[in-house]
Amino acid sequence: MKQLTGKTAIITGANSGIGLEAATVFADRGAQIIMAVRNLEKGKAARNSILDANSAALVTVIKLDLADLASVRSFAESFTNQYDSLDLLINNAGVMTPPYSKTKDGFELQFGSNHLGHFALTGLLLPVLKKTPHSRVVTVSSLAHKGAKIDFDNLDGTKGYKAMKFYGQSKLANLLFAQELDKRLKEHNLQPMSIACHPGISATNLFKFGKRDAPKLMKSLMHNFLQPPAMGALPTIYAATDLRLTGGEYIGPDGKGQRKGYPTLDTPHASASDHAVSQKLWEVSEKLTGVQFDFSKA
Predict the structure, then answer these.
(1) What percent of the chain has pLDDT over 90?
(2) How confident is the model at residue 257 (pLDDT cuts 50, 70, 90)?
(3) Which domains does the chain have, with CATH numbers?
(4) What is the pLDDT of residues 57-72, one digit of tens each?
(5) How far from the centroid of its chain's Cα atoms is residue 71's Cα?
(6) What is the mean pLDDT of the chain?
(7) Banded model confidence at residue 204, pLDDT cuts 50, 70, 90
(8) Quick one: three-class SS letters along the chain?
């Protein structure tokens, strides 16, 4: 990985887990990091942890609540008012299998936060991405996309809700979005690339039990079978920096079942190859968020 001095990177959910690991690596390579986080207190603590290890790191914390489109618009406006370029947008933040709940705009929480929030954020930041040579959007999906489907008749969960099913739907949406975005960028001869990735099964704080942390025995088992966040972050780092990538790829671990290992090209499940679903998801996402992507030349 080459030095990233002079590059600017936004990482959503950068205060813990894979986001924090990626932020640390990018900062160590000289990038200017924008930690886009819902909880400013936790974000500042994470920033301090990076600075403790590297006092020269360039790290800024800005509030972003992906479950609130007003917050997404406020973040994008704040960023574009302060920065002229954006080399890396890492759509990383996510919620996993919460009890049924909704975002401030009335969307089911996982679909609203994991997909719609990132969809809106990317669209609002597209003008600055287009102005930045060789910029990339990296969207973190999950093995949970396998066998999932987009239930357009029940996106808000009012006709029934199963937490894991809706998590899989949101992660399939992430993958479909990343692929469709790259396709549309190429169709308009625009330079930014869109790449999807997944961390395998990584022991991050997504694995919580309600408001309680995992029991000690469960933690022990998790760390025996799951890879640590530093390894889970490698596909994200690879997707963001490898110069051989051309856009549209899906990066994951190279181990058995793509659960652990070092980053390599992965193949999405067949559920992610339906172009009609991909296009419909895009249209629905634009309608729900009110964000239209501008693919005109920068």
Answers:
(1) 84
(2) low
(3) 8-289 (3.40.50.720)
(4) 999 999 999 999 999 9
(5) 17
(6) 92
(7) low
(8) CCCCCCCEEEEECCCCHHHHHHHHHHHHCCCEEEEEECCHHHHHHHHHHHHHHCCCCEEEEEECCCCCHHHHHHHHHHHHHHCCCCCEEEECCCCCCCCCCECCCCCEHHHHHHHHHHHHHHHHHHHHHHHCCCCEEEEECCHHHCCCCCCCCCCCCCCCCCHHHHHHHHHHHHHHHHHHHHHHHHHCCCCCEEEEECCCCECCCCCCECCECCCHHHHHHHHHHCECHHHHCHHHHHHHHCCCCCCCCEEEECCHHHCCCCEEECCCCHHHCCHHHHHHHHHHHHHHHCCCCCCCCC
Give the model's pLDDT for residue 202.
67
Measured CA to CA in angstroms, residue 163 lies from 66, 86, 96, 116 at distances of 18, 34, 8, 17
Whether the Cβ atoms of residue 59 and residue 85 lie closer than 8 Å to each other: no
pLDDT tier for residue 255 given thresholds of 50, 70 and 90: low
Sheet holding 263-265, edge to edge: 58-63, 32-37, 8-12, 88-91, 136-140, 193-197, 250-253, 263-265
Per the annotation, the verdict on 262 as an active-site residue is no
Catalytic residue among 83, 161, 167, 238: 167
